[in-house]
Amino acid sequence: MLIQELSQQVGGRVELTPAEQLLESLLHQMKVKEMAISPFPPAKHFFKVRHVIRKSPVFKLLQKMPKGAALHIHSSALVSADWLVLNATYRPNCYICFMREGSVRFLFSIHMPFPRWGCSFWSRLDTLRAGLSDVTAFDNSLMQNFTLFTDDPETAYPTQDAAWKRFEEIFVALSGLVTYGPVFKDYIYQGLKELYDDNIMYLELRVGQSRAYELDGTVHEKAWSLEVYRNITEQFRENHPDFIGSRVIYSIHRSLSVSTVKQAIKEAIEMQRQYPDILAGFDLVGREDTGGSIWYFREALSLPSELKKNLTFFFHAGETDLDGTEVDRNVVDALLFNTSRIGHGFALVRHPLAKELSRTRGVPVELCPISNQVLNLVTDLRNHPAGVLMSDGHPIVVSSDDPTLFNTTGLSYDFYEVFVGIGGLSANLGTLKELAMNSIRYSSLSSQLKEKAMMLWQEKWNKFIAENSKS
Ligand SMILES: O=c1[nH]cnc2c1ncn2[C@@H]1O[C@H](CO)[C@@H](O)[C@H]1O
Protein backbone atom coordinates (compact mmCIF):
# COMPACT_ATOMS: atom_id res chain seq x y z
CA MET A 1 0.00 0.00 0.00
CA LEU A 2 2.76 2.40 1.00
CA ILE A 3 4.76 1.60 -2.13
CA GLN A 4 1.66 2.14 -4.23
CA GLU A 5 1.01 5.46 -2.58
CA LEU A 6 4.59 6.63 -3.12
CA SER A 7 4.50 5.75 -6.79
CA GLN A 8 1.45 7.99 -7.21
CA GLN A 9 3.54 11.06 -6.39
CA VAL A 10 4.47 13.31 -9.32
CA GLY A 11 7.72 11.77 -10.51
CA GLY A 12 7.13 8.65 -8.44
CA ARG A 13 7.20 6.52 -11.56
CA VAL A 14 10.37 8.10 -12.93
CA GLU A 15 13.23 5.64 -12.78
CA LEU A 16 16.49 7.15 -11.63
CA THR A 17 19.88 6.21 -13.05
CA PRO A 18 22.66 5.42 -10.54
CA ALA A 19 24.09 8.95 -10.96
CA GLU A 20 20.63 10.43 -10.41
CA GLN A 21 20.17 8.28 -7.30
CA LEU A 22 23.40 9.71 -5.97
CA LEU A 23 22.22 13.27 -6.53
CA GLU A 24 18.83 12.36 -5.06
CA SER A 25 20.43 11.24 -1.80
CA LEU A 26 22.48 14.45 -1.60
CA LEU A 27 19.38 16.49 -2.38
CA HIS A 28 17.41 14.62 0.24
CA GLN A 29 19.96 15.46 2.94
CA MET A 30 19.95 19.11 1.87
CA LYS A 31 16.19 19.19 1.97
CA VAL A 32 15.94 17.60 5.43
CA LYS A 33 18.30 20.29 6.75
CA GLU A 34 16.31 23.03 5.10
CA MET A 35 13.02 21.74 6.41
CA ALA A 36 14.45 21.96 9.91
CA ILE A 37 15.09 25.72 9.60
CA SER A 38 12.79 27.51 11.96
CA PRO A 39 10.50 29.00 10.86
CA PHE A 40 10.31 26.72 7.85
CA PRO A 41 10.62 29.20 4.92
CA PRO A 42 7.73 27.89 2.77
CA ALA A 43 5.40 28.30 5.74
CA LYS A 44 5.85 32.06 5.44
CA HIS A 45 4.80 34.53 2.77
CA PHE A 46 7.28 34.52 -0.12
CA PHE A 47 8.09 38.21 0.35
CA LYS A 48 9.25 37.51 3.87
CA VAL A 49 11.53 34.61 3.00
CA ARG A 50 12.89 35.44 -0.42
CA HIS A 51 16.25 36.33 1.12
CA VAL A 52 16.32 33.01 3.01
CA ILE A 53 15.43 31.03 -0.14
CA ARG A 54 18.17 32.84 -2.08
CA LYS A 55 20.82 31.45 0.25
CA SER A 56 19.45 27.92 0.25
CA PRO A 57 21.60 25.15 -1.27
CA VAL A 58 18.48 23.49 -2.72
CA PHE A 59 17.56 26.77 -4.42
CA LYS A 60 21.07 27.12 -5.84
CA LEU A 61 20.82 23.64 -7.28
CA LEU A 62 17.41 24.43 -8.76
CA GLN A 63 18.91 27.47 -10.48
CA LYS A 64 21.43 25.24 -12.21
CA MET A 65 18.84 22.62 -13.15
CA PRO A 66 17.54 22.64 -16.73
CA LYS A 67 13.87 23.37 -16.06
CA GLY A 68 12.49 23.08 -19.59
CA ALA A 69 9.81 25.63 -20.47
CA ALA A 70 7.97 28.53 -18.84
CA LEU A 71 4.39 28.10 -19.99
CA HIS A 72 2.50 30.66 -17.91
CA ILE A 73 3.91 34.20 -17.91
CA HIS A 74 2.13 37.46 -18.76
CA SER A 75 3.95 39.60 -21.30
CA SER A 76 3.53 42.84 -19.35
CA ALA A 77 5.22 41.36 -16.27
CA LEU A 78 8.10 39.48 -17.88
CA VAL A 79 11.32 41.25 -16.83
CA SER A 80 12.81 42.33 -13.53
CA ALA A 81 11.71 45.66 -12.07
CA ASP A 82 15.41 46.60 -11.82
CA TRP A 83 15.84 46.41 -15.58
CA LEU A 84 12.76 48.52 -16.17
CA VAL A 85 14.00 51.27 -13.88
CA LEU A 86 17.71 51.18 -14.65
CA ASN A 87 17.37 50.61 -18.38
CA ALA A 88 13.95 51.60 -19.76
CA THR A 89 13.36 54.78 -17.71
CA TYR A 90 16.89 56.05 -18.48
CA ARG A 91 16.20 56.36 -22.20
CA PRO A 92 15.78 59.78 -23.78
CA ASN A 93 12.36 61.38 -24.12
CA CYS A 94 10.84 59.48 -21.22
CA TYR A 95 8.17 61.50 -19.40
CA ILE A 96 6.65 60.68 -16.04
CA CYS A 97 3.62 61.96 -14.14
CA PHE A 98 2.55 61.19 -10.58
CA MET A 99 -0.96 60.05 -9.73
CA ARG A 100 -2.74 61.37 -6.65
CA GLU A 101 -2.89 57.90 -5.08
CA GLY A 102 0.88 57.53 -5.41
CA SER A 103 1.22 55.59 -8.65
CA VAL A 104 2.96 56.80 -11.82
CA ARG A 105 2.40 56.93 -15.59
CA PHE A 106 5.02 57.03 -18.38
CA LEU A 107 5.07 58.22 -21.94
CA PHE A 108 7.86 58.56 -24.47
CA SER A 109 7.32 61.62 -26.60
CA ILE A 110 9.14 64.26 -28.67
CA HIS A 111 7.00 67.03 -27.16
CA MET A 112 5.62 67.61 -23.70
CA PRO A 113 2.58 65.25 -23.62
CA PHE A 114 -0.95 66.52 -22.94
CA PRO A 115 -1.87 66.47 -19.26
CA ARG A 116 -3.50 63.25 -18.07
CA TRP A 117 -6.56 63.16 -15.85
CA GLY A 118 -5.69 62.61 -12.19
CA CYS A 119 -1.96 63.00 -12.82
CA SER A 120 0.54 65.79 -12.11
CA PHE A 121 2.15 67.72 -14.98
CA TRP A 122 4.53 65.58 -17.00
CA SER A 123 8.28 65.87 -16.24
CA ARG A 124 11.03 64.61 -18.45
CA LEU A 125 12.92 62.05 -16.42
CA ASP A 126 16.43 63.18 -17.33
CA THR A 127 15.64 66.76 -16.24
CA LEU A 128 13.86 65.53 -13.14
CA ARG A 129 16.78 63.28 -12.11
CA ALA A 130 19.32 66.08 -12.75
CA GLY A 131 17.59 68.17 -10.08
CA LEU A 132 17.51 65.42 -7.42
CA SER A 133 20.02 65.08 -4.62
CA ASP A 134 19.40 61.34 -4.16
CA VAL A 135 18.73 59.66 -7.51
CA THR A 136 19.15 56.17 -6.03
CA ALA A 137 16.34 56.81 -3.56
CA PHE A 138 14.15 58.04 -6.41
CA ASP A 139 14.96 54.97 -8.54
CA ASN A 140 14.19 52.70 -5.61
CA SER A 141 10.83 54.36 -5.20
CA LEU A 142 10.14 53.77 -8.90
CA MET A 143 10.98 50.10 -8.41
CA GLN A 144 8.45 49.98 -5.59
CA ASN A 145 5.88 51.16 -8.08
CA PHE A 146 6.52 48.14 -10.32
CA THR A 147 6.29 45.37 -7.78
CA LEU A 148 4.01 44.18 -5.01
CA PHE A 149 7.07 43.38 -2.94
CA THR A 150 6.95 44.54 0.68
CA ASP A 151 8.44 43.40 3.98
CA ASP A 152 5.01 43.27 5.53
CA PRO A 153 2.63 41.66 3.04
CA GLU A 154 -0.06 40.82 5.61
CA THR A 155 -0.52 44.50 6.47
CA ALA A 156 -0.15 45.75 2.91
CA TYR A 157 -2.57 43.18 1.46
CA PRO A 158 -5.01 42.16 4.17
CA THR A 159 -7.56 40.93 1.61
CA GLN A 160 -7.59 39.56 -1.93
CA ASP A 161 -9.35 42.77 -2.97
CA ALA A 162 -6.43 44.85 -1.73
CA ALA A 163 -3.85 42.65 -3.46
CA TRP A 164 -5.72 42.57 -6.78
CA LYS A 165 -6.38 46.32 -6.76
CA ARG A 166 -2.70 47.11 -6.48
CA PHE A 167 -1.85 44.31 -8.91
CA GLU A 168 -4.05 45.75 -11.69
CA GLU A 169 -2.78 49.26 -10.93
CA ILE A 170 0.81 48.19 -11.60
CA PHE A 171 -0.08 46.91 -15.08
CA VAL A 172 -1.50 50.33 -15.93
CA ALA A 173 1.64 52.05 -14.56
CA LEU A 174 3.90 49.78 -16.63
CA SER A 175 2.03 50.09 -19.89
CA GLY A 176 3.42 53.43 -21.19
CA LEU A 177 6.91 52.19 -20.49
CA VAL A 178 6.88 48.72 -22.05
CA THR A 179 4.71 49.46 -25.08
CA TYR A 180 7.15 52.07 -26.44
CA GLY A 181 8.48 50.34 -29.59
CA PRO A 182 12.26 50.53 -28.92
CA VAL A 183 11.82 49.55 -25.25
CA PHE A 184 9.39 46.77 -26.23
CA LYS A 185 11.98 45.10 -28.49
CA ASP A 186 14.74 45.18 -25.87
CA TYR A 187 12.25 44.18 -23.20
CA ILE A 188 11.40 40.94 -25.01
CA TYR A 189 15.09 40.21 -25.51
CA GLN A 190 15.78 40.87 -21.82
CA GLY A 191 12.82 38.65 -20.85
CA LEU A 192 14.22 35.75 -22.86
CA LYS A 193 17.66 36.36 -21.40
CA GLU A 194 16.44 36.30 -17.79
CA LEU A 195 14.74 32.96 -18.47
CA TYR A 196 17.73 31.56 -20.34
CA ASP A 197 20.02 32.57 -17.46
CA ASP A 198 17.79 30.50 -15.18
CA ASN A 199 18.21 27.47 -17.48
CA ILE A 200 14.90 27.68 -19.27
CA MET A 201 14.77 26.90 -22.96
CA TYR A 202 11.33 27.87 -24.19
CA LEU A 203 8.55 30.35 -23.35
CA GLU A 204 4.78 30.66 -23.88
CA LEU A 205 3.63 34.18 -23.17
CA ARG A 206 0.11 35.52 -22.49
CA VAL A 207 -0.05 38.68 -24.58
CA GLY A 208 -2.78 41.29 -24.07
CA GLN A 209 -4.44 43.82 -26.29
CA SER A 210 -2.16 46.82 -25.87
CA ARG A 211 -0.54 48.19 -29.02
CA ALA A 212 3.00 49.52 -29.29
CA TYR A 213 3.68 53.19 -30.07
CA GLU A 214 6.52 55.40 -31.31
CA LEU A 215 7.95 58.75 -30.27
CA ASP A 216 5.88 60.68 -32.81
CA GLY A 217 2.66 59.14 -31.50
CA THR A 218 2.27 56.48 -34.22
CA VAL A 219 0.43 53.44 -32.87
CA HIS A 220 1.25 50.07 -34.41
CA GLU A 221 -1.18 47.36 -35.45
CA LYS A 222 -1.28 44.30 -33.18
CA ALA A 223 0.40 42.24 -35.92
CA TRP A 224 3.46 44.48 -35.54
CA SER A 225 3.98 43.18 -32.00
CA LEU A 226 3.61 39.58 -33.15
CA GLU A 227 6.33 40.17 -35.71
CA VAL A 228 8.53 41.69 -33.01
CA TYR A 229 8.02 38.59 -30.85
CA ARG A 230 9.03 36.44 -33.80
CA ASN A 231 12.02 38.55 -34.88
CA ILE A 232 13.42 39.13 -31.41
CA THR A 233 13.08 35.43 -30.60
CA GLU A 234 14.97 34.64 -33.81
CA GLN A 235 17.67 37.14 -32.89
CA PHE A 236 17.94 35.64 -29.42
CA ARG A 237 18.21 32.15 -30.90
CA GLU A 238 21.03 33.24 -33.19
CA ASN A 239 22.98 34.29 -30.12
CA HIS A 240 21.84 31.31 -28.02
CA PRO A 241 21.42 28.29 -30.31
CA ASP A 242 20.36 26.06 -27.41
CA PHE A 243 17.24 28.17 -26.83
CA ILE A 244 14.17 26.70 -28.53
CA GLY A 245 11.99 29.79 -28.91
CA SER A 246 8.80 31.43 -27.76
CA ARG A 247 5.11 31.45 -28.67
CA VAL A 248 2.26 33.76 -27.82
CA ILE A 249 -1.18 33.12 -26.27
CA TYR A 250 -3.47 35.93 -27.34
CA SER A 251 -5.34 37.13 -24.26
CA ILE A 252 -8.22 39.41 -23.43
CA HIS A 253 -9.35 40.81 -20.11
CA ARG A 254 -12.42 39.06 -18.68
CA SER A 255 -13.89 42.38 -17.46
CA LEU A 256 -14.78 43.20 -21.09
CA SER A 257 -18.08 42.57 -22.89
CA VAL A 258 -19.12 39.44 -24.80
CA SER A 259 -19.04 41.37 -28.07
CA THR A 260 -15.48 42.61 -27.43
CA VAL A 261 -14.38 39.07 -26.60
CA LYS A 262 -16.08 37.85 -29.78
CA GLN A 263 -14.06 40.37 -31.76
CA ALA A 264 -10.85 39.22 -30.04
CA ILE A 265 -11.67 35.58 -30.86
CA LYS A 266 -12.07 36.49 -34.52
CA GLU A 267 -8.74 38.33 -34.45
CA ALA A 268 -7.08 35.39 -32.74
CA ILE A 269 -8.40 32.97 -35.39
CA GLU A 270 -7.02 35.22 -38.10
CA MET A 271 -3.67 35.61 -36.32
CA GLN A 272 -3.37 31.88 -35.79
CA ARG A 273 -3.94 31.43 -39.53
CA GLN A 274 -1.44 34.14 -40.45
CA TYR A 275 1.23 33.47 -37.80
CA PRO A 276 0.86 29.76 -36.97
CA ASP A 277 4.48 29.54 -35.83
CA ILE A 278 4.16 32.27 -33.21
CA LEU A 279 0.51 32.23 -32.13
CA ALA A 280 -0.34 29.27 -29.89
CA GLY A 281 -3.92 30.10 -28.91
CA PHE A 282 -6.26 32.11 -26.73
CA ASP A 283 -6.98 32.90 -23.06
CA LEU A 284 -9.14 35.12 -20.83
CA VAL A 285 -7.15 36.98 -18.17
CA GLY A 286 -7.76 39.29 -15.21
CA ARG A 287 -9.27 38.67 -11.81
CA GLU A 288 -11.57 35.72 -12.17
CA ASP A 289 -14.18 36.35 -9.49
CA THR A 290 -14.97 39.90 -10.56
CA GLY A 291 -14.91 39.24 -14.31
CA GLY A 292 -17.11 37.24 -16.68
CA SER A 293 -17.07 33.46 -16.34
CA ILE A 294 -16.26 31.09 -19.18
CA TRP A 295 -19.96 30.25 -19.33
CA TYR A 296 -20.77 33.98 -19.60
CA PHE A 297 -18.54 34.16 -22.69
CA ARG A 298 -19.87 30.89 -24.18
CA GLU A 299 -21.22 32.53 -27.33
CA ALA A 300 -17.83 34.06 -28.10
CA LEU A 301 -15.90 30.92 -27.16
CA SER A 302 -18.08 28.72 -29.40
CA LEU A 303 -17.18 30.80 -32.46
CA PRO A 304 -14.14 28.77 -33.55
CA SER A 305 -16.07 25.49 -33.63
CA GLU A 306 -19.09 27.16 -35.29
CA LEU A 307 -16.85 28.63 -37.95
CA LYS A 308 -14.93 25.33 -38.16
CA LYS A 309 -11.68 27.16 -37.42
CA ASN A 310 -8.79 26.14 -35.23
CA LEU A 311 -8.16 28.03 -32.03
CA THR A 312 -6.47 26.37 -29.08
CA PHE A 313 -7.62 27.47 -25.62
CA PHE A 314 -5.36 27.88 -22.58
CA PHE A 315 -7.82 29.08 -19.98
CA HIS A 316 -7.14 30.55 -16.58
CA ALA A 317 -9.66 28.66 -14.46
CA GLY A 318 -10.28 28.10 -10.77
CA GLU A 319 -7.64 30.67 -9.82
CA THR A 320 -9.36 32.73 -7.17
CA ASP A 321 -12.85 31.46 -6.54
CA LEU A 322 -13.66 28.57 -4.25
CA ASP A 323 -17.14 29.58 -3.24
CA GLY A 324 -19.33 27.51 -5.51
CA THR A 325 -20.42 30.51 -7.59
CA GLU A 326 -20.78 30.50 -11.35
CA VAL A 327 -17.13 31.55 -11.61
CA ASP A 328 -16.16 28.54 -9.52
CA ARG A 329 -17.47 26.34 -12.35
CA ASN A 330 -14.79 27.73 -14.68
CA VAL A 331 -12.61 24.65 -14.22
CA VAL A 332 -15.44 22.44 -15.49
CA ASP A 333 -16.32 24.77 -18.37
CA ALA A 334 -12.68 25.21 -19.36
CA LEU A 335 -12.45 21.45 -19.80
CA LEU A 336 -15.76 21.31 -21.67
CA PHE A 337 -14.33 23.93 -24.04
CA ASN A 338 -11.37 21.60 -24.52
CA THR A 339 -8.76 23.77 -22.87
CA SER A 340 -5.29 22.36 -23.44
CA ARG A 341 -4.00 23.50 -20.04
CA ILE A 342 -5.60 24.98 -16.90
CA GLY A 343 -4.08 28.26 -15.68
CA HIS A 344 -3.73 27.87 -11.87
CA GLY A 345 -6.56 25.39 -11.18
CA PHE A 346 -6.36 26.32 -7.51
CA ALA A 347 -10.00 25.22 -7.13
CA LEU A 348 -9.60 21.97 -9.07
CA VAL A 349 -9.43 19.67 -6.04
CA ARG A 350 -12.92 20.83 -5.11
CA HIS A 351 -14.29 19.44 -8.37
CA PRO A 352 -13.57 15.70 -8.40
CA LEU A 353 -15.09 15.16 -11.84
CA ALA A 354 -13.13 18.00 -13.43
CA LYS A 355 -10.02 16.77 -11.66
CA GLU A 356 -10.51 13.29 -13.05
CA LEU A 357 -11.20 14.65 -16.52
CA SER A 358 -8.12 16.83 -16.45
CA ARG A 359 -5.97 13.92 -15.39
CA THR A 360 -7.35 11.39 -17.89
CA ARG A 361 -7.26 13.85 -20.78
CA GLY A 362 -3.75 14.95 -19.88
CA VAL A 363 -4.70 18.58 -19.31
CA PRO A 364 -2.05 19.90 -16.92
CA VAL A 365 -2.45 22.50 -14.23
CA GLU A 366 -0.12 25.48 -14.59
CA LEU A 367 0.96 25.85 -10.99
CA CYS A 368 2.25 29.32 -10.02
CA PRO A 369 2.79 29.12 -6.24
CA ILE A 370 4.24 32.59 -5.67
CA SER A 371 1.28 34.10 -7.46
CA ASN A 372 -1.03 32.09 -5.18
CA GLN A 373 0.81 33.35 -2.12
CA VAL A 374 0.48 36.96 -3.22
CA LEU A 375 -2.95 37.01 -4.85
CA ASN A 376 -4.79 34.15 -3.11
CA LEU A 377 -3.19 34.86 0.27
CA VAL A 378 -2.07 31.24 0.81
CA THR A 379 0.76 31.90 3.18
CA ASP A 380 1.73 28.42 4.33
CA LEU A 381 2.45 26.33 1.26
CA ARG A 382 1.85 23.14 3.20
CA ASN A 383 -1.84 24.08 2.92
CA HIS A 384 -1.72 24.60 -0.84
CA PRO A 385 -4.31 22.42 -2.63
CA ALA A 386 -1.70 21.38 -5.20
CA GLY A 387 -0.30 19.09 -2.49
CA VAL A 388 -3.26 16.83 -3.27
CA LEU A 389 -2.62 17.08 -7.01
CA MET A 390 1.05 16.24 -6.51
CA SER A 391 0.36 13.18 -4.39
CA ASP A 392 -2.16 12.10 -7.02
CA GLY A 393 0.45 12.28 -9.78
CA HIS A 394 -1.71 14.89 -11.52
CA PRO A 395 -0.18 16.48 -14.65
CA ILE A 396 1.46 19.71 -13.47
CA VAL A 397 3.76 22.33 -14.92
CA VAL A 398 5.41 25.06 -12.85
CA SER A 399 5.53 28.72 -13.84
CA SER A 400 6.06 32.22 -12.48
CA ASP A 401 3.03 34.17 -13.79
CA ASP A 402 4.26 37.76 -13.24
CA PRO A 403 7.96 37.88 -12.34
CA THR A 404 8.13 41.72 -12.40
CA LEU A 405 5.35 42.09 -9.87
CA PHE A 406 6.54 39.32 -7.58
CA ASN A 407 10.14 40.55 -7.76
CA THR A 408 11.57 37.31 -9.09
CA THR A 409 13.41 36.22 -12.20
CA GLY A 410 13.23 32.80 -13.82
CA LEU A 411 11.35 29.82 -12.39
CA SER A 412 13.71 28.71 -9.63
CA TYR A 413 11.77 30.42 -6.83
CA ASP A 414 8.55 28.76 -7.97
CA PHE A 415 10.29 25.40 -8.31
CA TYR A 416 11.63 25.83 -4.77
CA GLU A 417 8.15 26.50 -3.41
CA VAL A 418 6.71 23.48 -5.20
CA PHE A 419 9.59 21.16 -4.39
CA VAL A 420 10.21 22.05 -0.75
CA GLY A 421 6.96 23.70 0.36
CA ILE A 422 4.16 21.87 -1.43
CA GLY A 423 5.92 18.58 -2.17
CA GLY A 424 7.77 18.23 1.17
CA LEU A 425 9.88 15.13 1.63
CA SER A 426 7.70 13.11 -0.75
CA ALA A 427 9.00 15.15 -3.69
CA ASN A 428 12.34 13.94 -4.99
CA LEU A 429 14.62 14.27 -7.99
CA GLY A 430 12.12 12.24 -10.04
CA THR A 431 9.53 14.93 -9.27
CA LEU A 432 11.83 17.64 -10.58
CA LYS A 433 12.62 15.58 -13.65
CA GLU A 434 8.95 14.98 -14.39
CA LEU A 435 8.03 18.64 -13.87
CA ALA A 436 10.74 19.76 -16.29
CA MET A 437 9.78 17.12 -18.87
CA ASN A 438 6.08 18.01 -18.46
CA SER A 439 6.83 21.58 -19.44
CA ILE A 440 8.03 20.37 -22.84
CA ARG A 441 5.44 17.59 -23.15
CA TYR A 442 2.51 19.95 -22.48
CA SER A 443 3.85 22.88 -24.50
CA SER A 444 2.20 23.88 -27.76
CA LEU A 445 5.31 23.02 -29.80
CA SER A 446 4.84 20.83 -32.89
CA SER A 447 5.69 17.18 -32.29
CA GLN A 448 8.91 17.61 -34.24
CA LEU A 449 10.05 20.59 -32.16
CA LYS A 450 8.97 18.85 -28.97
CA GLU A 451 11.20 15.93 -29.85
CA LYS A 452 14.09 18.30 -30.54
CA ALA A 453 13.47 20.20 -27.30
CA MET A 454 13.26 16.98 -25.31
CA MET A 455 16.57 15.74 -26.72
CA LEU A 456 18.27 19.03 -26.01
CA TRP A 457 16.82 19.08 -22.50
CA GLN A 458 18.01 15.49 -21.88
CA GLU A 459 21.55 16.46 -22.89
CA LYS A 460 21.48 19.42 -20.50
CA TRP A 461 19.98 17.24 -17.77
CA ASN A 462 22.69 14.58 -18.13
CA LYS A 463 25.33 17.28 -17.85
CA PHE A 464 23.60 18.72 -14.77
CA ILE A 465 23.51 15.28 -13.13
CA ALA A 466 27.15 14.54 -13.96
CA GLU A 467 28.31 17.90 -12.59
CA ASN A 468 26.32 17.74 -9.36
CA SER A 469 26.29 14.11 -8.29
CA LYS A 470 29.96 14.00 -7.28
CA SER A 471 29.62 14.91 -3.64
O1 LIG B 1 -2.31 35.49 -12.43
C1 LIG B 1 -3.05 36.14 -13.17
N1 LIG B 1 -4.35 35.83 -13.26
C2 LIG B 1 -5.23 36.51 -14.03
N2 LIG B 1 -4.87 37.56 -14.74
C3 LIG B 1 -3.60 37.94 -14.70
C4 LIG B 1 -2.64 37.26 -13.93
N3 LIG B 1 -1.46 37.88 -14.12
C5 LIG B 1 -1.68 38.91 -14.98
N4 LIG B 1 -2.97 38.93 -15.33
C6 LIG B 1 -3.66 39.88 -16.18
O2 LIG B 1 -2.94 40.11 -17.35
C7 LIG B 1 -3.11 41.47 -17.70
C8 LIG B 1 -1.88 41.93 -18.40
O3 LIG B 1 -1.69 41.22 -19.58
C9 LIG B 1 -3.33 42.24 -16.43
O4 LIG B 1 -4.25 43.27 -16.58
C10 LIG B 1 -3.81 41.19 -15.46
O5 LIG B 1 -5.18 41.37 -15.19
UniProtKB/TrEMBL annotation:
<feature type="domain" description="Adenosine deaminase">
    <location>
        <begin position="159"/>
        <end position="452"/>
    </location>
</feature>
<dbReference type="GO" id="GO:0046872">
    <property type="term" value="F:metal ion binding"/>
</dbReference>
<dbReference type="InterPro" id="IPR032466">
    <property type="entry name" value="Metal_Hydrolase"/>
</dbReference>
<keyword id="KW-0732">Signal</keyword>
<keyword id="KW-0378">Hydrolase</keyword>
<dbReference type="Pfam" id="PF08451">
    <property type="entry name" value="A_deaminase_N"/>
</dbReference>
<dbReference type="InterPro" id="IPR001365">
    <property type="entry name" value="A_deaminase_dom"/>
</dbReference>
<dbReference type="GO" id="GO:0005615">
    <property type="term" value="C:extracellular space"/>
</dbReference>
<dbReference type="GO" id="GO:0004000">
    <property type="term" value="F:adenosine deaminase activity"/>
</dbReference>
<dbReference type="InterPro" id="IPR006330">
    <property type="entry name" value="Ado/ade_deaminase"/>
</dbReference>
<dbReference type="Pfam" id="PF00962">
    <property type="entry name" value="A_deaminase"/>
</dbReference>
<keyword id="KW-0479">Metal-binding</keyword>
<keyword id="KW-0964">Secreted</keyword>
<protein>
    <recommendedName>
        <fullName>adenosine deaminase</fullName>
        <ecNumber>3.5.4.4</ecNumber>
    </recommendedName>
</protein>
<dbReference type="InterPro" id="IPR013659">
    <property type="entry name" value="A_deaminase_N"/>
</dbReference>
<comment type="similarity">
    <text>Belongs to the metallo-dependent hydrolases superfamily. Adenosine and AMP deaminases family. ADGF subfamily.</text>
</comment>
<dbReference type="GO" id="GO:0006154">
    <property type="term" value="P:adenosine catabolic process"/>
</dbReference>
<feature type="domain" description="Adenosine/AMP deaminase N-terminal">
    <location>
        <begin position="2"/>
        <end position="62"/>
    </location>
</feature>
<dbReference type="GO" id="GO:0046103">
    <property type="term" value="P:inosine biosynthetic process"/>
</dbReference>
<dbReference type="InterPro" id="IPR006331">
    <property type="entry name" value="ADGF"/>
</dbReference>
